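Quick check before the chapter quiz. The format below is the same one you will see on the exam, so make sure you can read both the input and the output lines.
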Amino acid sequence: MLNKKDFYYYLPEELIAQDPLERRDSSRLMTLNRRTGEFEHKVFSDIEGLINPGDCLVLNNTKVIPARLLGVKEDTGAAVEILLLKRRGKDTFETIVRPGKKLRPGARVSFGSGELKAQIEEVLEGGNRLVRFEFEGVFEEILDRLGQMPLPPYIKHELKDRDRYNTVYARYEGSAAAPTAGLHFTEELLQRLSDKGVRMVYITLHVGLGTFRPVKEDDILKHKMHSEYYEISRESAEAINSVKASGKRVIAVGTTSTRTLESAAEPDGRLRADSGETDIFIYPGYKFKVIDGLITNFHLPESTLIMLVSALAGRENVLRAYRAAIEERYRFFSFGDAMYIY
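Here is the expected output.
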């Protein structure tokens, strides 16, 4: 049995990064050889020298929307919060609501000066709510005015520049959380990599909060992932297959890119153009079909993300590297430092 406690490590709270660094690519970078377990300490901009001509970086071009809405119940004036997860229709979303006890079907909520209203339609599996919004004009414009970026609960500081919770290549709106490994890239760094002959391939996975939900079962095989929408174009699939055929490396930027690629892989490792929902859960014992390397952040103890990283690099290697990162005072989680597993 794979037990969630096998993926626990102690992290001092002061190492949880509360703010992004002034320059994206100035974060620290730990490189980890997944075969030997050896690691080195570098700066993220050093990644330029670690990726070879002909290799490809696979980047998730999803864009985080200001999905956190603070409002009041129309009948009592009580403060409530609605977090948008997935669009289910033109004016309908699957959401997380707080406090859940006050927001049962039929409850109505008002936001701002009333230019946006909502009604709770249904309680979904797991306690999420189906919410129908009422508004005049363009919903995205109203959300841009009234919404806040849905930062993880371990970030207590206010985000002064909401662009810093998106990658520089974010394009398609739909995420409730950032694909944080990509936050380290600047446009200049991407250009230098491209000039060197590294191929940039873009795919899309709209990040929900299911990826970050805690594993509650001791036996991790009983954990159920929530599904997320992904899309891989024919052009992107052909580019990745070409890189694989040439003997060069496919390096995923982030666990979201990894999960997308592995969801659309044939048994022989060929990638198909595809779109749909994935609830793939990757943990030790998984045989990777597409990726050869991974750029990622440092993840929460006992999370599905540290389990994915452990599947690629080995649990003992990962935990040893994490202990070293703590000793070296690396910054952890969304706005923290990075790791390159090769």
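If your answer matched, good. The mean pLDDT is 96.
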